[in-house]
Amino acid sequence: MAHVLVIDGHPDPRSLTARLAESYAAGAGNDAVALVLRDLDFDLTLRTGYRTPQDLEPDLARAQELLEWADHVAVFTPLWWGSVPALLKGFFDRTLERGWAFRYKENGMPEGLLSGRTGRLAVTSDSPGWYLPFVGDSTVKQVKGRTMEFCGIKPTKLTRYADVRGRSEADIAAWIREAADLGAADAARPARAGVVRPLARVS
Questions:
Q1: What distance in Å separates the CA atoms of residue 200 and residue 203, rounded to the nearest whole number?
Q2: How many CA within 13 A on the CB side of residue 109?
Q3: Which of 16, 20, 103, 113 makes an SS bond possible with 179, Cβ 3.0 to 4.6 Å?
Q4: Phi, psi at residue 197, to the nearest 5°?
Q5: Is domain 4-187 in CATH 3.40.50.360, yes or no?
Q6: What is the pLDDT of residues 9-50, one digit of tens each?
Q7: Ramachandran quadrant class, 200 (left: phi over 0; alpha: psi -120 to 50; beta: rest)
Q8: Strand 156-161 relative to strand 118-124, pairing
């Protein structure tokens, strides 16, 4: 069984994104840990880029431990202004440190240091699914390609929950059930072989 880390990037616990993340984590079972970003205490801003060090708060240090522990990382986010909430972007900026999540080789090419992990990106949006690729799908490109896969978390599969405003309660309930099924399927993947885990048990 894979160790699954579920990152809930929505600021509102009442949101559909939060409900989907919770259902996915429940489906993944005992080998899943939910990292609910709205419950963490950290500065969202990378104050000087990488010019000067910025110490990690305890919650972010714990997040790095969980990323090291995980075999599979699932990120749940809404699409806001062609991007993600500041909460999730700040988490990425602060936690995915250069030299820890990625590095640049001597030839200038980037290398992801979280390799060996698979991923899933789940995106909610009011826009219809057909429209987003037509206008560039910037949220998916940013999170899936230029963040998760850039850091070595690949392949990362995409799950889209689109046209949320037009959905019935029956549709929403079906999505919630689907998220649990996806969590169970992702957790059923084999764990990384030969990995010494920093956390023997995470709760």
A1: 10
A2: 2
A3: 20
A4: -90, 135
A5: yes
A6: 999 999 999 999 999 999 999 989 999 999 999 999 999 998
A7: alpha
A8: parallel
